[in-house]
Specification:
Elements (H helix, E strand, L loop, with lengths): L2 H5 L2 H11 L4 H19 L2 E4 L1 H16 L10 E5 L25 H8 L3 E6 L11 E2 L3 E2 L15 H8 L5 E6 L5 H7 L2 E4 L19 E6 L2 H11 L17 H6 L6 E4 L12 H16 L3 E4 L6 H21 L9 H11 L3 H8 L2 H8 L8 E5 L16 H11 L5 H5 L3 E8 L5 E8 L4 H14 L7 E2 L3 E2 L1
Parallel strand pairs: 2-3, 2-6, 9-10, 9-11
Antiparallel strand pairs: 1-3, 4-5, 6-8, 7-8, 7-12, 11-13, 12-13, 14-15
Helix pairs in contact: 3-4, 6-7, 11-12, 11-13
C-alpha cells in the first residue's frame, strides 16, 4: 500500500503497518505532516501542528518496536481537539482568551501516549464549542474535505476534517450537544458519543455540568473501538463513572449483534421542525437494511417531553456558555457572538437555572423507558444536508441558536441523559455530501452500538470513499 493510501486507511491498518515493518512510524508520520502542509491551508483543520515533536515521537516509536515492544497504537498519528489539555500549552477552547500553560497532559492524552500514539496536532473548534459549525471571526472557517464551500460541522469540526482528509488516523473530539456526532455525520466518518463517565475528562471533574463527554472520531467502527479501548476508564475525582463494558470495545466490534429489536423514530425533539426528504430516505433505507440483516425493526416515536426538556436544555446551554466565557482568563477577547450567547446566559433568572438543572434523573428515567421494548433506537443524525460555510452569518444570535437547535434536534437529549449514541454513515445527498443516521443505545451499552454499526459497515462499507481533489467525491 502506498503511503498516501495508508493515510486514509485508518488506525487499525496503520498500526498493523508499523507493527509488521511495512512502514516505519517516522515514514508514516512524515507523510501525514506533508499532507497537512499541502492540504490544511485549504481546510484550516489544525490550530497547531507539532511537526518536530511528532517526528521525534515517531522515531522513539520505531526504537521501541526495534527493541521488541508492542503497543496498540504504536506510531499512529492522532490529533486532539483544542479543549483537551496538553502539557505546556494553554487550553484555548477555540478562543484567544487563554494564556496559562497546562502543567500536565489530560488523562486522554496521557493514555494515548501510553498506547504509543503520536500526537500530531491540535484541531480547531468554534469559540467555547457553542456552534454546530467550526468558524470564528479571527480564525476563519474550517472547511469540509468533501466540499470546501460546506462546513465540517462542530464543535469538533477540525477533528473530523483532519480525519476525513487523511491528515490524522483518528482524532479526539468532545460532545456536549452533538459535537462528535455532527462533524462525523457531515464528513462521512464514524463518531460515537460514549456513555457519560466512560472516558475521564481529567483534569476536569466534568464539563458543562455533565453534558460533555469525549471520544474518538474515526474512519471505521473498529478504529473507534481500538482507540476507545485505550482511553476508557475513570480516575479518582471524576464526577461520573460508567459501568464496565461487558467486553472490550474491539471484541464488540468483531461480534455479530444477533437479532435485535430496533425502534425507528423520525420525530424531531420539538414542534414545527422540518425534516429533509434526503434525511428521511437514509433513515428508512437503514431501517430496511437492518430488517434484511435479520433485526426486528419497528416504528416508534416516543414523546420525550419535548417542549419542557428542550427548554431546560436551552437554559442549561446558555448558563454554561456564560460560565465558560467568564471562566476564561481573558473573557473580553472572545468575539461578539460568543459574548452575546454568554450575555443571554447571564440574564437568565437564577430560578430558571435551578429549574433547568434539577430534573436530570427524572428525564433520564423517562427517556430510557423506550429501552424496555427495544435494544437500539434509530433516528436521523441531523435534519438536513450539511450547512454551507457562513450560512448563518447574517442572523442575529437568537435566530442562529434556533437554526442550530433545529439542525441538531435529535442529538442533545442523549447528552442530558448520558446514553451512548453514534453517528453512522448512511449515504449521500444528490450532490455527493455525506449523510448519516444516529443509533442510540441503552445506558452504558456502547458494545451493542459497536456490534450493530460494524454489521452495517460490513453490509454497506463507507471507509473506502475518500475526498478527491478536496471537494469532489469519488
Amino acid at each position: 500500500m502506498e503511503l498516501t493510501e495508508l493515510c486514509f486507511a485508518g488506525v487499525a491498518r496503520q498500526a498493523h503497518a508499523v507493527r509488521s515493518g511495512e512502514v516505519t512510524a517516522r515514514e508514516l508520520v512524515a507523510e501525514h505532516l506533508g499532507r497537512i502542509e499541502r492540504v490544511d491551508p485549504q481546510l484550516n483543520a489544525f490550530r497547531l501542528v507539532f511537526a518536530e515533536k511528532a517526528l521525534a515521537e515517531a522515531e522513539a516509536a520505531d526504537a521501541r518496536r526495534a527493541a521488541g515492544e508492542d503497543l496498540p497504537l504504536l506510531g499512529v498519528p492522532i490529533a486532539v481537539k483544542e479543549d483537551i489539555a496538553l502539557q505546556g500549552l494553554p487550553t484555548t477552547k477555540g478562543t484567544n482568551a487563554a494564556r496559562t500553560p497546562e502543567p500536565a497532559d489530560s488523562a486522554i492524552v496521557a493514555r494515548l501516549r501510553e498506547a504509543g500514539a503520536v500526537i500530531i496536532g491540535r484541531t480547531r473548534m468554534p469559540e467555547l464549542g457553542l456552534w454546530p459549525y467550526t468558524e470564528s471571526g479571527w480564525a476563519g472557517p474550517t472547511r469540509n474535505p468533501w466540499s470546501l464551500t460546506h462546513s465540517p460541522g462542530g464543535s469538533s469540526g477540525g477533528s473530523a476534517a483532519a480525519v476525513a482528509a487523511g491528515l490524522a488516523a483518528a482524532a479526539i473530539g468532545t460532545d456536549g450537544a452533538g459535537s462528535i456526532r455532527i462533524p462525523s455525520a457531515v464528513t462521512g466518518l464514524f463518531g460515537l458519543k460514549p456513555q457519560r463517565g466512560r472516558i475521564s475528562l481529567a483534569p476536569e471533574r466534568e464539563m458543562w455540568g455533565g453534558l460533555v463527554v469525549a471520544g474518538p472520531i474515526t474512519r471505521t467502527v473498529m478504529d473507534w473501538a481500538l482507540v476507545a479501548d485505550q482511553l476508557r476508564g475513570a480516575v479518582p475525582g471524576d464526577a461520573h463513572v460508567a459501568h464496565p463494558p461487558r467486553t472490550s470495545f474491539t471484541e464488540a466490534a468483531r461480534t455479530d449483534p444477533g437479532r435485535l429489536r430496533i425502534g425507528v423514530s423520525l420525530r424531531p425533539w420539538g414542534p414545527g421542525i422540518p425534516l429533509a426528504d434526503e434525511v428521511r430516505d437514509v433513515v428508512q433505507d437503514t431501517a430496511a437494511l437492518l430488517t434484511d440483516l435479520g433485526h426486528d425493526v419497528v416504528r416508534l416515536d416516543p414523546p420525550m417531553r419535548d417542549v419542557t426538556a428542550s427548554t431546560q436544555f436551552a437554559a442549561r446551554y446558555l448558563h454554561n456558555a456564560y460560565l465558560a466565557r467568564t471562566g476564561m482568563e481573558l473573557p473580553d477577547l472572545v468575539e461578539s457572538r460568543t459574548r452575546a450567547v454568554g450575555e443571554l446566559g447571564r440574564r437568565l433568572p437564577r430560578a430558571a437555572v435551578r429549574w433547568a438543572a434539577k430534573d436530570d434523573a427524572d428525564l433520564t428515567a423517562y427517556a430510557n423507558r423506550i429501552f424496555t421494548s427495544i435494544d437500539v433506537l434509530l433516528t436521523p443524525a441531523l435534519t438536513r444536508a450539511p450547512i454551507r460555510v457562513g450560512e448563518w452569518d447574517g442572523r442575529n444570535v437568537v435566530s442562529a441558536l434556533l437554526a442550530a437547535a433545529h439542525y441538531t434536534t435529535f442529538l442533545p437529549l442523549w447528552n442530558i441523559v448520558g446514553n451512548p449514541a453514534a453517528a453512522v454513515p448512511a449515504g449521500r445527498t444528490s450532490t455527493g455530501l455525506p449523510l448519516a443516521v444516529q443509533l442510540v443505545g441503552r445506558q452504558h451499552d456502547e458494545c451493542t452500538l459497536l456490534s450493530v454499526s460494524a454489521q452495517l459497515e460490513r453490509a454497506r462499507p463507507w471507509a473506502d470513499r475518500t475526498p478527491s481533489g478536496l471537494g469532489h467525491a469519488k
